[in-house]
Every structure is written in structure tokens, then in C-alpha cells.
Amino acid sequence: MKMREENDRYKKITEILRNSRPEIKRPEEVENEVIRRIQRESHKTGRVSEFIESLFGWVYIGWVRRSLVGVAAVIIAVFVYQQTFIFRQVKSISRQVVISGNQRSSAPSAVLDKKLMFYKMSVRLTPEGDISISGRQLEEFLESYNDLQLKYKDLQRLIEEDPELKDYIENKLSQEKKYKPDI
Amino acid sequence: MVANELIEECRNGDLHNFRKVVEKTTPIIFQVAFRMLGDEEAARDIVQDTMVTIWQKLAKIKTADSYKTWVYRIAVNKCYDQLRKQKRQKESRYDDQAWALISNHLSEEGITELENRENARILSLLTNQLSPKQKAVFVLSELEEMNAEEIVRITGMNRAAVKANLYYARKNIRSLLQKYI
């Protein structure tokens, strides 16, 4: 009984709503506004919107279309970033001295350390992004450095062995210190 | 609804003829939007947006015969967007005046016709707890008197989803009627 009453109420209210067709007031205003908007939009439509329309025109739901445009824009931005920033970094890495595995195992670690130290020094001395030192130049530089070190050690040994020479040099050094102007 | 020749001409960019299309299509869109949103002003906005979209996409419509379904689909999708923006009320507010109005109409002999304002008030009261999909199926099936096949084509839901949404919409409205009348 209760169920039937409920059904009757439902049927009657839906019938009332069905028969009460909502009528649009001042339809000519809506028509004019539609035509105005179309004319305005057609002026605005540029090449970009035509391009977007041709790509995503098949999507009727506004927010889905906007999301697709957004995702496409992000993908393009990532691609451009990758092409400019990351590619530049890769290029700078390719310019650096590469020490291969074989060289590393055969060369003594002290030599490698020196090589790296010279390389770092050369990077510090030259302006950023303008490094033009080859591996061969580095080798030559290292050799002359080693020669210089050997000669310096020989000189030290000679001075240690000759006390007169040692006194003479010490005097000279202290005199030089006296006349050195204070900066 | 709208003559095929008229649509064909509009597809070639004839804005003068499109005014005639607007004239004939506006009442249909307004009716469905009004019933889904329960708001006259919002329904007018939907009419404008839908007609502009129709003009922009008219070239893409495959056959002029499918115009009616296509118009409904665009209008319903725009109503979905509008309903998603609004927050659905979890609990129906007790509007004693509106319920008294429904009660009066139910007790009257015969079927009365409602004015826009009354119509909107009753629609809002009965459907404000429904999801956008339930609302769309209820309006298309119970008020626009469409069959399941047409609703499937307009909403993009499958037949089972249409049936389920209609079942829950009816159940919800029945329980409201039972609770407050």
C-alpha cells in the first residue's frame, strides 16, 4: 500500500514536471548574443587556436580538452629544455679530458693526481667555457714540472753539502728580506 | 527539428541562416539545461555556449540527421561541467514552502502546469542530491521521454550504467517524497 502510494506520488510529480515545459524569456536577446559572440570569436581566432582546434577538436568536454592542451605544452617545454640545457651539458662533458680504464690501471696514482691537479688549475686560470688544453700538452706540462722538481732537489742537496754556500745564501736571503718594501 | 538543407548551408559558413538554426534549437537546449541545472540564468548561459560550440563544430558533423543527438550531447556535457563546478549538497535542506508547494500540486486533481520559477524550485529540491550523471539520465528519461538507446548515444554511458543511474535517481527522489510529504 505504502509502496503504491510512493509510486503514485513519484509518477504524478514527474508528470507535472514533464508537462511544465520551461520557456525561455526574451529569446531574441539570446540569439543576438550568440551571433555577437560568434562574430567576436571569428575575429579572435588566430592561427594558434586553429592549430589547437585541428589537434583537439574531437574532444567535446571542455576540461578534457584544456588538460590535453596543457599536457602537450608541458611535453614541448620538456623537449625544448632537454635540447638546450642538457645538450649543452653533454657537450661540455665531451670536451673534458677522458681517462680511460686502461690508462688508469697502468699509470701510477701520483701521476694521475698531478694530471688532475694541473687540469683543475688550467680550468681555474682560463675563462669558463673556453678550455683548450689537449692531453698531449698536459703530458708535456707534467714532464717539465717533474724536471723542475728534480733540479730543485739537486740544488737543495748541493746547498746542504756545502756550509759556505749555505751561509752565503742565507745572508743574501736575509738581506733581501730587509730591503723588501712593506706592502 | 531543423531542416537538413539549413544545416548544410550553415556548414558552409552562412551566419544568416545560422540565426534560424539558433531560433529553432534554443528552446530545446534551454529546456534540457533548465531541467538539469534548475536555474533559469544558468540555462541561458548554457544555451549561448552550446550554440557557439555548435557553430564552431558544425563542419565536423557527419550527417545532418544526427544533429538532434549531437546538440543534446553538447548541451548535456556543458551542464556536467557546470554541475561539477557547483558543490553537490549531501543533505537536502528542508524547504518547507517548497515541500508545501509540491504537496499542493500532488493533492490537486489533474496535472497542473508550473511556471519557470516554481518548476526550478521543485526540480532543485528533488534533484540536488543526485550526481550529474543521475541528473542527466533522470531528465532525459523521465522528463524528455527518451529511450535508453538515445540516452546511451547522448551521454556516452553504456546501457547498464544508464539503467543503474536511473534506478538510483528514482530511488532518491521517491525517498525524499516519502520523507517530506
Q: Any overview of this molecule?
A:
The complex is a heterodimer of chains A (183) and B (181). Chain A is mainly alpha-helical. Chain A has 2 domains: 37-95, no CATH class; 96-179, no CATH class. Helices cover 80% and strands 0% of the residues of chain A. Chain A is built from 8 helices and no strands. Chain A has helices spanning 2-19, 27-44, 47-56, 62-95, 101-106, 109-125, 135-161, 163-179. The model of chain A is unreliable at 100-106 (pLDDT under 50). Chain B is mostly helical and 181 residues long. Chain B folds into 2 domains: 1-86, RNA polymerase sigma factor, region 2, helix turn helix motif (Rna Polymerase Sigma Factor, Chain: A, Orthogonal Bundle), CATH 1.10.1740; 90-181, Winged helix-like DNA-binding domain superfamily/Winged helix DNA-binding domain (Arc Repressor Mutant, subunit A, Orthogonal Bundle), CATH 1.10.10. Chain B has 9 helices and no strands. Chain B has helices spanning 4-11, 15-37, 40-57, 67-85, 96-107, 116-127, 132-143, 148-155, 159-180. In chain B, helix 1 (4-11) packs across helix 2 and helix 3 (40-57) crosses helix 4 (67-85). The mean pLDDT of chain B is 88.
Task: Give the key terms.
heterodimer; A: 183 residues; mainly alpha; B: 181 residues; Rna Polymerase Sigma Factor, Chain: A; Arc Repressor Mutant, subunit A; 2 domains; 9 helices; 74% helix; 0% strand
The ordered string of helix (H) and strand (E) elements of chain A is HHHHHHHH
Which CATH top level class of the largest domain in chain B fits?
Answer: Mainly Alpha
Mean pLDDT of chain A: 79
Radius of gyration of chain A over all CA atoms, rounded: 43 Å
CATH architecture identity of the largest domain in chain B: Orthogonal Bundle
- Please write the string of helix (H) and strand (E) elements of chain B: HHHHHHHHH
Number of helical regions of chain A: 8
**What share of residues are in beta strands of chain B?**
under 5%
Low-confidence stretches of chain A: 100-106
Instruction: Provide the low-confidence segments of chain B as ranges.
Output: none
As for the CATH topology of the largest domain in chain B, it is Arc Repressor Mutant, subunit A
Largest sheet of chain A: none
Strand content of chain A: under 5%
* N-to-C CA distance of chain B: 39 Å
Number of strands of chain B: 0
Question: How many separate domains of chain B?
Answer: 2
CATH superfamily of the largest domain in chain B: Winged helix-like DNA-binding domain superfamily/Winged helix DNA-binding domain
Classify the helix fraction of chain A into a percent range. over 70%
Q: What integer value in Å does the Rg of chain B equal?
A: 18 Å
